[in-house]
Amino acid sequence: MIIFNRLDEIKNIENTVVALGNFDGVHKGHQALIARTVKTAEAANLKSAVFTFSNHPKNVNCGELIVKNILYFDEKAKIIENLGVDYLFNIPFDEQIRQMKPIDFIDHVLIGKFNMKQAYCGFNYKFGYKAEGTPEVLMHEGIQKGFGIHVLEPFQIDGNLVSSTFIRNLIAEGRVDQCMKYMGRNYAIGGEVVVGNKIGRTIGFPTSNLIIDESMVTPPNGVYVTYCTYNGKRYPSVTNVGVKPTIGNYKKNVETHIFNFNKELYGKTIRVEFLEKTRDERKFASVEELSKQITSDCIMAKDYHRRTR
């Protein structure tokens, strides 16, 4: 898959079938739309493409971070590539794009840059200045300008409309056990392990600490059954998200204890998958009481891993 990060990088590419949308979660609804795009492109001997913005339009319009990411870009790109896509247009939503009228967007970007012959989009897709562009606009222009538009109906699972907003709410509410059903994978965050207060090591539970990435949606404070991936290997683990109120006054972070693991991870990159929340974070009367609770948390997490292996 070829990735284009700016419009001016796109020159004289082959004719395409384009999936249109933000694809910020690449959830099962997105995957279905992209799969249809790829299948149509193959049947028509065209290139398949996904068009998305590298930043969320709502954040640009509001001037602040109001929509947080569900996926890191490298993960997003890998999922899209695995669906068989030829081109990924990962374009910044800048002032030029923001001011572009829907018809100009179609003419200069979709046709002029992407050589779009067909497109797939969701029923609620919006584009162009003040989000005035709709699937109906695309269909009308397609008749005039010779491209086809396929508008997909709402994608539902168990009566729930699958959307990135819905998934963000699941994560923010701690219902991480539901993410696999709607995304096709566990919710995960990653980063470089930083030096913590090393209290866990002194009470028999050494942990790997990640600083919260403010651009990512994160679950509420509490204890979670997790997997931790390091150097390509996935280890059962238990994770506390929070501020460690028993120990002192700390910023929110992600603190993971990996079972049967004794490697030093400071400065290394890990990825933590969240499987289920087991309890809220709370302040204990003493470190000894905290240690007893952590022992209980570990027993519960190990049992979960054993049952679901």
UniProtKB/TrEMBL annotation:
GO molecular function: ATP binding; FMN adenylyltransferase activity; riboflavin kinase activity
Domain of life: Bacteria
All residue ranges annotated as the Riboflavin kinase domain in the record: 182-306
Annotated keywords: ATP-binding, FAD, Flavoprotein, FMN, Kinase, Multifunctional enzyme, Nucleotide-binding, Nucleotidyltransferase, Transferase
BP term (GO), one: FAD biosynthetic process
Record flagged with keyword Transferase: yes
SUPFAM superfamilies: Nucleotidylyl transferase, Riboflavin kinase-like
InterPro entries given in the database record: FAD_synthase, Riboflavin_kinase, Riboflavin_kinase_bac, Riboflavin_kinase_bac/euk, Riboflavin_kinase_dom_sf, Rossmann-like_a/b/a_fold
Entry EC no(s): 2.7.1.26, 2.7.7.2
Involved pathway(s): Cofactor biosynthesis; FAD biosynthesis; FAD from FMN: step 1/1; Cofactor biosynthesis; FMN biosynthesis; FMN from riboflavin (ATP route): step 1/1
Key word Thylakoid present: no
EC class name: transferase
Catalytic activity, reaction form: FMN + ATP + H(+) = FAD + diphosphate; riboflavin + ATP = FMN + ADP + H(+)
Pfam families for the chain: FAD_syn, Flavokinase
Family: Belongs to the ribF family.
Function: Catalyzes the phosphorylation of riboflavin to FMN followed by the adenylation of FMN to FAD.
NCBIfam families: PRK05627.1-5 (NF004162), ribF (TIGR00083)
UniProt protein name: Riboflavin biosynthesis protein
Originating organism: Aminipila luticellarii
